[in-house]
């Protein structure tokens, strides 16, 4: 379940920090902590960590390491233990100098406790960092317009996937507008085909619909306001209209009848899609690897992809993207090795780092990756994702990662209540406005 696991790796960020245990401590002097003899980089210890291992080895052998006099030591933490261990470490004298995170809400408590280096001016004054990454990805991990992280893994935008063979048989085209989507839905239902697969029992696949609809209807500014702590932003008319649109889709049978008992995590939703029982699937880009692993013939022959359609009369640009921009390295404000930390972060913009990500099947957030994507396991899909993010005026971080961790669970609960009919669009908006 590599693809789902990667969604979990990203989604775990919403539970990364809490106010507890973040009291500021004096600079530590122990080996491996800020002030120690080495620069410690704490990272999520999944299969992709091999890229960071190589990066550390490359930096430690570089002129930059000799110039700064610091050597990076990578501290790999098993996935399930990472959030708790990072939280504990950040409240101790031996906190890491650099650490892996999900951006947005996952680092807000650290920012509020003044435990992060604000990298905004550093990026602006460093040609490698300023020009090394796609601007929308840098911005997606920011808080209040300030940068606290450098992209260090692959991008995972949410994509509208469709069954090319089924579409051809029904004489359909990928929808570019909402009216086209609704017309496709009507024709598919007439043919006895559910328009969209949906793993409703996991809830987070439902979230993707609201993320895109709020963006397309009201523009990215609507959720930016919410992400930056203004809960009144949930009262924006775009949120209510998105909720009403979701209810109309559900009532019209766009997701079939049993979507609330179908999961993505056990392969249920991908199977409905691959077997032609559903024609489309709104899902993160990892859907490709899921289908390749479970239904390789379908992935190679029938799987198509396109942008989420424009909403007629909406303020959002069809080029806007939602999803998981990437993971980030952030720097502890208490480090004694800031220059070395920044020098280490610069490696993430290097051609060598980019090539390692591509070889691992990732689509890098680096600005120069386009010319290297032919080496990807699926060049066509990699190029589509890269262009999608490169051309995006805005890349909205998944809501469950962007909001304060204390808001994540009640927000998801309200989304699920909307989808299963236990709440109306009006009650949905009222409940979200009450989240603090």
TrEMBL record:
Gene3D superfamilies: Periplasmic binding protein-like II
PROSITE patterns for the chain: PROKAR_LIPOPROTEIN, TAT
Any matching Pfam family: SBP_bac_1
Keyword list, A-Z: Signal
TM stretches of this protein: none
Leader peptide range in chain numbering: 1-23
InterPro entries: Bact_solute-bd_prot1, SBP, TAT_signal
Tagged with keyword Signal: yes
Organism superkingdom: Bacteria
PANTHER family reported in the protein's UniProt record: ARABINOSE-BINDING PROTEIN-RELATED, BLR3389 PROTEIN
Protein name per Swiss-Prot or TrEMBL: Extracellular solute-binding protein
């Amino acid at each position: 379940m590599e693809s789902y696991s990667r969604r979990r790796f990203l989604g775990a960020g919403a539970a990364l920090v809490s106010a507890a245990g973040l009291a500021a401590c004096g600079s530590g002097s122990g080996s491996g902590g800020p002030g120690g003899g080495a620069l410690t980089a704490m990272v999520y210890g999944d299969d992709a960590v091999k890229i960071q291992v190589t990066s550390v080895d490359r930096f430690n052998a570089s002129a930059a390491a000799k110039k700064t006099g610091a050597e990076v030591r990578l501290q790999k933490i098993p996935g399930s233990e990472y959030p708790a261990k990072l939280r504990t470490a950040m409240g101790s004298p031996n906190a890491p100098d650099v650490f892996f995170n999900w951006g947005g809400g996952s680092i807000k408590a650290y920012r509020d406790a003044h435990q992060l280096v604000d990298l905004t001016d550093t990026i602006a004054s460093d040609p490698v960092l300023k020009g090394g990454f796609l601007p929308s990805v840098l911005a997606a991990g920011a808080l209040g317009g300030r940068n606290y992280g450098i992209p260090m893994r692959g991008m995972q935008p949410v994509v509208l996937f469709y069954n090319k063979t089924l579409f051809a048989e029904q004489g359909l085209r990928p929808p570019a507008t909402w009216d086209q989507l609704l017309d496709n839905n009507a024709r598919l239902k007439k043919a006895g085909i559910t328009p969209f697969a949906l793993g409703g029992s996991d809830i987070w696949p439902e979230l993707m619909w609201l993320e895109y609809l709020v963006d397309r209807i009201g523009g990215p500014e609507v959720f930016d306001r919410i992400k930056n702590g203004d809960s009144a932003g949930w009262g924006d008319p775009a949120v209510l209209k998105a909720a009403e649109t979701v209810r109309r889709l559900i009532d019209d049978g766009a997701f079939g009848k049993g979507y609330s008992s179908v999961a993505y995590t056990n392969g249920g939703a991908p199977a409905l899609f691959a077997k032609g029982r559903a024609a489309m699937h709104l899902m993160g880009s990892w859907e490709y690897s899921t289908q390749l692993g479970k239904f390789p013939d379908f992935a190679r022959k029938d799987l198509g992809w396109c942008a989420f359609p424009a909403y007629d009369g909406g303020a959002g640009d069809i080029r806007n993207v939602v999803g998981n921009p990437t993971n980030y390295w952030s720097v502890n404000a208490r480090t004694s090795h800031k220059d070395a930390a920044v020098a280490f972060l610069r490696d993430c913009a290097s051609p060598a780092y980019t090539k390692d990500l591509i070889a691992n099947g990732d689509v890098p957030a680096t600005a120069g990756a386009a010319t290297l994507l032919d080496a990807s396991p699926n060049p066509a899909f990699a190029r589509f994702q890269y262009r999608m993010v490169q051309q995006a005026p805005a890349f909205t971080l998944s809501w469950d990662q962007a909001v304060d961790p204390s808001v994540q669970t009640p927000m998801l609960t309200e989304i699920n209540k909307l989808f299963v009919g236990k709440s109306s669009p009006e009650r949905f908006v009222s409940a979200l406005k009450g989240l603090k």
